[in-house]
Amino acid sequence: MLIPSIDLVRGQAVQLQQGRELEFVADEDPRVLARRFGRVGEVAVIDLDAARGTGDNLALIEELCALAPCRVGGGIRDVERGKRLLQAGARRLIIGTRVDPDFLEEFPPVRLLAAVDARDDHVVDRGWERQVDESPVDRARRLEPFVGGFLYTLVEREGLQAGIDIARVQALASAVGKPVTAAGGIHTTDEIRVLDRMGVDAQVGMALYRGTLGLGDGLAAVVRFVEDGDGAVTVVQDASDGRVLMVARSTRASLIATVESGEVVVHPAYRDSRGARDEAVHGLRLVRVEVDCDRRALLLLVEPSGPVCDRGTASCFGDRPFSLAQLEQVIAEHTSASGQESYTARLLGDAVTRRAKVLDEANQLVGADAYPAIRSEAADLLYHVLVELVAGGVPLEAVVKELGSRRRRPPS
To answer: Helix, strand or coil for residue 227?
Structure first.
């Protein structure tokens, strides 16, 4: 899979050549890049200032983790920083310099990637400035029991768009039993496809910033589209509550258009539609595309702004059931409704009453002793907690991420 990269220096997205010279500073704000890059899955965010000990972009990285699924590296040398990043929603931590087992064991292995950074086949760390007397394969084998995978960077190729050394990547990937992400000079769809068929993800920076490689092209490179023209089976799902909205198909062209525009474009789902044109589905903003394990089906996570089905319903499977995400949205609408005298609006404007109600409802739930009462009091408490979250500007999704950061075992 394609893993776009955002390297940070003084709050800006940059690209280095060979890990040393500043080659490129992006015009776009890192937040804008994170939203766009997040359409194809995880984004690698590297704090070069923290890695080199010349600064810190922690607050910005926390913002980026709320905007896209991020794997974060650079300067993670103490447990507090690592846990703070996981609490902010980081999917994985990339650990380079501090790879001693005592430190790694402070985190769930599934949430860790060990950085294997090599310059001319010698491991380097501390912002790629210090050479270590260890080969990439030896480092990977030593760290494998403590991590969930590896980021293998060929530093001397970084930023040059000269292509990655496939043989070196293959040697390391074959030496370990956990997933590998490769970085350093990747700039073509052929490289991404070859790496993916090896089971290796491709981390790309310069080629995306320079326009040598399109974001949609990079994702489409790994998909095995059906050769008869119907395209890959595509499930469109509401990102907030998981409800399936429709099933369609994606051609290479429609997938690229979806990723590049951020608006869903699909091909009619049925076999008698052969020869039909790709169609935009209005009112669906793309959040992220996920590709299944054998690369033959797609999941489009979207934010709908209205009915999806031609029959006027919220989905092609009928109207969606009520969810906490919908309740959160209803509560949030009361913050901007001028002159509204609803109970929710009054609570949002009165912190003392709002917090007293949370405590009151919690006490009533604890005192409930039968199914109907427990159900009712729990509903009251959840409502008042959501009002408190909306008032405090804390999304429900952020609370879910906080809970996820506490898991020490991968999902079954």
So the answer is: coil
Which one from 7, 47, 196, 238 is the annotated catalytic residue?
A: 7
Active site residue 310: no
Q: Which residues pair with 301 in a beta bridge?
A: 237, 288
pTM of the model: 0.81
The answer to whether 217 is a known catalytic residue is: no
Dist CA 142 CA 99 (whole Å): 10
Q: Which CATH superfamily is domain 324-405 in?
A: MazG-like (1.10.287.1080)
SS3 379: helix
| 310-338 pLDDT, tens digit each | 777 778 887 767 788 888 888 988 876 55
Q: Which of 198, 193, 124, 112 is nearest to 156 (CA)?
A: 124
Q: Is the C-alpha dihedral spanning 262, 268, 274, 279 positive or negative?
A: negative
Catalytic residue among 47, 117, 196, 238: 117
Name, in order, each residue with C-beta under 8 angstroms of 242's C-beta and a sequence gap of 6 or more: none
Distance between CA atoms of residues 159 and 399, nearest Å: 37
**Strand runs (DSSP E) across 179-274, as ranges?**
180-183, 200-204, 232-238, 244-250, 263-266
Tell me the domain boundaries of the chain.
2-220, 232-304, 324-405
Report which DSSP code applies to 231. Answer: -
- β 122-125/112-119 pair status: antiparallel
* 106-138 tens-digit pLDDT: 999 999 999 998 988 888 877 667 788 889 999
- CATH number for the domain formed by residue range(s) 2-220: 3.20.20.70
